[in-house]
Amino acid sequence: MNEKTQKRHIGLKASQNISNIIVYVILTVMAVIWLIPFICIVLQSFRVENTWPVGYVAPKTWGFDNYIALWNSDFKRWYANTFIIALIVAVIQTIIVLCMSYTLSRFRFKSRAGLMRLMLILGMFPGMLSMIILYRVLKDLGLTQANAVPGLILVYVASSGMGYYVSKGFFDTLPKSLDEAARIDGATRAQVLTKIILPLAKPIVIYTILTAFMGPWGDFVFARYISFGTSSGMNVAVGMWNWLTPDMINQRYTMFCAGGVIVAIPVALLFMFLQKYYVEGVTGGAVKG
Amino acid sequence: MKSMKKILALLLAAVMVFSLAACGGGGTTPSADSGSSSAQTTKAPEGGDQTTKAPEGGSSELAGTYDVTVWCADNIVDLTKKQIEAFNNSNTDGIKINATVENVGEGDAATQMITDVEAGGDLFCFAQDQFARLVQANALSKLGAKAAEFVKNGNDEGAVNAATMSGDIYAYPLTADNTYFMYYDKSVVSDDIAGNLNDVIAACEKAKKYLAFDVGNAWYLASFFFGAGCKSEWSTDKDGHWNVNDDFNSEKGLVAMQGLHDIQSSPMFLSKSGASEFDSNAAVVVSGTWDSGTASAILGDNLGVAALPKYTVDGKDYDLVSFMGYKLLGVKPQTDSVKAAVLHRLAQYLTGKDAQLERHAAVGWGPSNKEAQADDAVAKDPVLNAVVKQAQKSVVQGQVNDGWWNLAAALSAAAKDTDKKEDYQAALDTYVAGLEHLKNLKEGLLFVGAWNGWDNADESDTYILQDDGDNKTVTLDVPESDYMGGRIVNIGSWENDKGFAQVKEGADLLNADAAGDDNNIVFLEPGNYTVTINGSNEITVKKN
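ok -> structure tokens follow
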């Protein structure tokens, strides 16, 4: 009996090793598959011997021509538009979402449950439904075409309060006794939020900022509709999409890749930079008995 | 509580500031017609007739500065800016055009224009197949008698026909080159075998190089059918209902299917287009003028250009007959007749002989202007020579029902899998059934929306209504995946409610938007439904 269990014990370790090896092989293969398109795009963006899609990956001649061409095109305008939109939306939306979540998590007021239910139902409608109406409204306000940037900010920010679910769920897990202690010490509600809750909820704040930034950064459908054929109001996604016509693809393909690389940079930086806080936030904070 | 309110108030204020600031910044700036107050009262009957010559002073009733938006393809944006600058300097009427040239491709122009004509470009380039849609959407202003003369006298016959609808001309021809022909690598395919598809395939197989011919796309695929003697001519009546004269389902169609099978069964066949394939081991690419620059950059002196070869079925040769299309320049209808007259002047300048030659020199577009076609630079262009030869074996691409492209494209896959006549016949039968379906759209109901992934009408689900006198009914299945939402609309009018009263009654109707415009939007849970429209166009949705 004893011998048997010992044997089995060794077998377990070996089988753990084997399963680890298998898992790592699978993960490595998946990682490679996952990364290949990105590597291709980066390599293609430095290819200068011609500008059309080719059947090989590594450039024959390297250079920065594509990036220089981007700088001389409308791309920098589109990039600035996208960046301004994403930045402003990230700030406003984060504030709205956090306030909203805090309110719904900590306050008890008359129509709270009704409000939450209403927002749940409203959230079920695809946003695209309202696209045509939104376009008309924004057009009447003069916020389309060349003025698409403020128009788009308005669109993205307008409904942001409804995205409170995740952060409200997180706030619910923070003990109420913290609030109460702070209130007894004389903190206002706003101070409770900014001084007590938010430092404890760093991961969720980071998460909110990231999603708020990413939404407008990659948007195409609304942005295309609202910029409506006006280059100065386009974001990168819409502007670069116009390069993909059969007439233009051969002149723009490598530029398109370079554009893709530049678009990816701030997002990658954002994630790398905020990851630190992400981890910090998870481990920080506790109630003292 | 109080501070929250303050924050809220602050946010609201911020939002207000944003919208207000934007309002002040732009909006609609009326064009400043400086020094032409009298011009306002002069009404031109129709666009383009106001060609009053200026007196010596260099100003006429058209004098003034005009804000004009021009939509054209990316590769001619800079050239168009230059040409407008030249127009400003050369015209003797004191017209100054303050132009914004935007990159809106010819393929996309109609979709954009029809979405919001008011916000669209004043002048816009578009491909000929969108012509009928644009006329129906009132996005094109009719040319006056003098402007029509200008078009008729200047351009070749096909181009004039392309811009004509029921006897009236609505646009200015820009190019006559929208077709496809064969680019080939002379080191693989010699000039003397370029006229026969079998020889071309054999040469490609021998050299282990690809033959790229995108027969998976109906635009290219149709060449086999037209070559075999088939026709497919779509037309719409005044109500926008489609009709088609199509004989793909015939003995000739079977020949085309066999031809499609033969080319696709070659191991070196590649269903792609685009001259960049020459860089990926292709020796032959079937494509259009837009690829000439790329093709000659890759192949250099080895580049050969020719009309499409003949294909052989049962020992008989058939031509490959391509679609031929034109690019046109349209003028949007204007409320200000003076501006309209100026726009027509500008359009005539931009489609005139010199402008077309400049475009040929810069991007290789084939002119539609007869004098420009006779110009040395154009007549000696090998690519345009191929276009001219191909044009002799081509059919003009008129208006085509959007659904046809997918329907016809399916034939190439059907031909690839089999070499049995009865299978070809089955595929053609399916095709004809699809045609009937497309034609019958006038009797149907269209469900546009999540039923088909919010895509456009190409793939929208269509249901034919059963008419029992009083009510029209249709049963439909909403798939199990998710609950679905979308619009119920009449055929040919799928943007707004178009005469349908609000959807009022319905089991499991999750929502019918009560606010006017979108009253034809419904959300349904998965299941089987009967949709009824009564005599007063009221829709009822009932779950079965």
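Residues 2-25 of chain B form the longest helix (24 residues).
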